[in-house]
Write a structure and sequence with these properties.
The structure is a homodimer. By secondary structure, chain A is mainly alpha-helical. Chain A has a single domain, classed as Arc Repressor Mutant, subunit A, CATH 1.10.10.10. Chain A contains 6 helices and 3 strands; from the N terminus they run ααβααββαα. Chain A has a 3-stranded antiparallel beta sheet with strand order 1-3-2. In chain A, β2 and β3 form a beta hairpin. The longest helix of chain A has 25 residues. In chain A, 29% of the residues are buried. The interface between A and B is large, with 51 and 51 residues. Chain B binds a DNA duplex through α2 and α4.
Chain lengths: 146, 146
DNA sequence: CTGTATACTTAGCATAGCTAATCATTAGCT
DNA sequence: AGCTAATGATTAGCTATGCTAAGTATACAG
């Protein structure tokens, strides 16, 4: 019972912290000159290699029409390329341009610097604790390929 | 140097985990019948007691016109009340209705159940670690009243 | 070769973010 | 008191991002 209580508390607290953490770093997003959906999609394209629009939509958990428009904007800004797949001419392959890769890295760095500035208020023990917790979270969150 | 490296890793990892965590629980939001901005604002009104529109906008880190419209929608749906402040008739006080409080609790519970389902894959030690990390994060994130 | 399924796009709607401009009220200064 | 500046909220209008429904083009199945 105590354990279940604790589980709920931890869940509630993690939830709240995740919201606040993202709000905090998101202030740096505007410096990238693109919206959050574009930034997130670009990130997947840069780090997740070339992939189709449907795959990208699935990773980003949005519907294909939404992703189609986001990609449209990224193409217009020269951050990704959109080419028809030679093996299946119905589908398109999205890949990052050099500019897209550069822009993303810069934005990512800004976000991380922002976060690091916050984290630097903590002592080494606390950082270690966060690191350990982060690895635990990765185990159950990032996988999700079931 | 090792410490700084670790700081960056932890920052990057936390950032990524926060994104994935919120994506995960956000799937439950639609069940509440209101959008994410409305849900988040309602949460503040319910748990943060009556407060003015400007205060609400600040907590939610959006501009007053944005919050004005969000509140407008919540009022229309009968989830919050909007009354002019007697002490300063320029400002308005937002407070939750019974319906708003109920709706929010239900949605919150759904999100948390979702999160708890994920967390229950972990053992007691790991949960404790997450709890500790969460308290550390709260210290540096939720405060921000400087 | 005809019909169905798949991948994407287009069209149209709702929510949510912003700035600029407006209105009402309060506060401050002589 | 009375004028002016500051403050709290709203309105108007733009952009971005989410959705569903419907359309187009290609692939596949018989």
């Amino acid at each position: 019972m105590t354990e279940k209580q604790s589980l709920e508390e931890v869940g509630r607290s993690l939830h709240s912290n995740a919201i606040h953490l993202l709000r905090h770093v998101r202030t740096e997003d505007s410096a990238m000159g693109i919206g959050p959906a574009q930034a997130s999609a670009l990130s997947v394209v840069v780090f997740g290699g070339p992939l189709t629009l449907n795959e990208l939509a699935e990773v980003e958990q949005v519907r294909p029409p939404t992703m189609s428009r986001v990609v449209e904007a990224l193409v217009k800004e020269g951050l990704v390329r959109r080419e028809t797949n030679r093996d299946d001419r119905r589908s398109v392959i999205i890949s990052p341009t050099d500019k897209g890769t550069r822009i993303l890295q810069e934005g990512r760095n800004r976000r991380e610097r922002r976060l690091i500035k916050l984290l630097s208020k903590l002592d080494a023990d606390e950082i270690r604790c966060l690191g350990k917790a982060s690895r635990i979270l990765s185990k159950i969150l990032v996988v999700e390929h079931s």
